[in-house]
Amino acid sequence: xxxxxxxxxxxxxxxxxxxxxxxxxxxxxxxxxxxxxxxxxxxxxxxxxxxxxxxxxxxxxxxxxxxxxxxxxxxxxxxxxxxxxxxxxxxxxxxxxxxxxxxxxxxxxxxxxxxxxxxxxxxxxxxxxxxxxxxxxxxxxxxxxxxxxxxxxxxxxxxxxxxxxxxxxxxxxxxxxxxxxxxxxxxxxxxxxxxxxxxxxxxxxxxxxxxxxxxxxxxxxxxxxxxxxxxxxxxxxxxxxxxxxxxxxxxxxxxxxxxxxxxxxxxxxxxxxxxxxxxxxxxxxxxxxxxxxxxxxxxxxxxxxxxxxxxxxxxxxxxxxxxxxxxxxxxxxxxxxxxxxxxxxxxxxxxxxxxxxxxxxxxxxxxxxxxxxxxxxxxxxxxxxxxxxxxxxxxxxxxxxxxxxxxxxxxxxxxxxxxxxxxxxxxxxxxxxxxxxxxxxxxxxxxxxxxxxxxxxxxxxxxxxxxxxxxxxxxxxxxxxxxxxxxxxxxxxxxxxxxxxxxxxxxxxxxxxxxxxxxxxxxxxxxxxxxxxxxxxxxxxxxxxxxxxxxxxxxxxxxxxxxxxxxxxxxxxxxxxxxxxxxxxxxxxxxxxxxxxxxxxxxxxxxxxxxxxxxxxxxxxxxxxxxxxxxxxxxxxxxxxxxxxxxxxxxxxxxxxxxxxxxxxxxxxxxxxxxxxxxxxxxxxxxxxxxxxxxxxxxxxxxxxxxxxxxxxxxxxxxxxxxxxxxxxxxxxxxxxxxxxxxxxxxxxxxxxxxxxxxxxxxxxxxxxxxxxxxxxxxxxxxxxxxxxxxxxxxxxxxxx
RNA sequence: GCCGGUGUGGUGGAAUUGGUAGACACGUUGGAUUCAAAAUCCAAUGGGGUCAAACCCGUGCCGGUUCGAGUCCGGCCACCGGUACCA
Length: 801
Prior knowledge:
This protein is α/β, with parallel strands linked by helices.
């Protein structure tokens, strides 16, 4: 039995005090930037899911160091956010203390696992020295015209007097209510900072192609960006000097447009509603405010809507068509208005059937039961009659452009990013609103703009953040006597996580100015991130927002790669022993502390990597942990019973070289479970032979070191060698892997019937000949052999009739 | 609902390009060791069938392509992640 407590503490202390894993400033070595998604340090501490990805990157980092790379492998804290805010409001305590305490726990737990982080580069998003640069980037966005104030809809709860996160809103009978108290929640437009990510939509879409990311993640981002090519069409409103624009991908069906629908929030609704309809329209707008987008669109089974009393003029045929409002049209997609073509759009079809609106067939397909949305020749469409879809779309756009009533247009589902939160615990905006109506930014030399000390953080009841109560901080006076008020919104948690990979690079005992010569040198050296591992739950939002900021920084010359993260990998979730997601309420959360205490960090790391493929979801198992420990015990004993000899042990040649080959390839491809099983096979062989040549002993310890760094360093030290952390990665000799005889499977009509051993050098014909064994013949007898297929070195397939 | 994923023995999983399904572990059973036990070492272990073999069945379900399908195609089912203010 080895004493994990002693060994692990000893090596952790050694690495920490020697700064073994400090990033080298040596520019001659090739670099590897290996990054984890940094955690939100919750009050519950680390759970066993966190170290899964961290172990993977740690193995990879240790491998790359031994392969001669200069490795940057840092860790930090995404420490702003909702839970600390809620804790502060509930208890009256300062979120800073709470956050610092949680970080200390997380850090201790992570360090107990022996990860090879360069702790000199630790970042913390709530550290003013860090968020100084978050604010600086915001200023750059503002100066580039990418940050604007606009009225955007938020979840407003009148009773609670506060804006709620989607997470805090429940759906009861299709209505939004607060999680706390079940009070009504409505969509209410409020002044918000908005980042114009849509201006980058096309680049965010196109540059996905050059990334080594899971195809599924790229696909999700593509779908999220949601590019659709179509046209804008202008509709004049009868008896008003007003018009509105719709976006459509099927401009060719314009002759079939028999009504239009505006989103209930559409600006025009108030101007065009007739007196007779006014009451009903207002009632409907109220009704729609209480529904979430999801309920309004995808979950919407029963269409609702109200006629406004106004008519639009169809620009292609001059027909007067009624204008309705309905919640299935969203103000946030396209132009917030649609031309309804009930014959050829299913939602419009359902709506028209329900409200008995005219349906005109303009494509030659069956519309008796449902809308026909395919490609067919046009009918009832004037100059489009007889044309197919593509041709007709092109011709219609030509008509629209010639008559100045529309144009070709590309629409994205991607929406601009609401970048403000009505909260205390976030980065303050470096913005002052002056009483003369102007807005100015805080000067660079006055950054960071820190959060005020507040005795009691509480909601204001007006929808403003608790910062509105911090009078001294809030109110400023300009030299000319004009009064101003600081922005009371704060930035969302995304802000700090959008650029933290850059933070690590710049953090050399304080943050280097990214535009300085030294900062530039560092950024050019380290970017992009070579490997980024984190959960699939970040597939779209974090990764898309972060890519957007990176592109902006690229445009202003701060960074020099188009993309931040070159290779991305998602680790799967670790489930509870019951196969369900770990959660406090289920009581199935496993905390690593007890296991590290009882089994040791090496066992923990080994078990997590052996559980299954990194990307898969896997349930936790106690007995599996014991098995992992048993393997390490077996390794420990292997060095006790086997003579460590300087002689060659020919029986081990093949399995050793196989192991080097497989482990090297598997580590590189993040397939740790199969690498471990190969090392187990090697150990099993040594147990049979009871001899271990020195060269193979060191090679084996080197290979196991990235997974179980403490025990391998200890064994290696006992052998009298220098530390493994920077030793040379073993190489394999292909010639040792060649077999002289091979086993070939013989199939008859696809079923395995016999196996033969043949010389590796045997000719194809000789193998085919040898395949006709007595047993095989009993299956081919009385039948004609139609075909014989030989797959080299693997099988012979005989087809009979 | 929409987008993306997953489904293989009693259990975790392996099979990297269509070529021996179940590597390696866990568990179980048997043996060795021990006064005895734990630990350790060795062996067996998908299901049916058989004294043993032969043989049959088997990768969520239904169908297809192929000499050959866990792998490719079509249609389902179940579960998981995301769905823009949890991050």
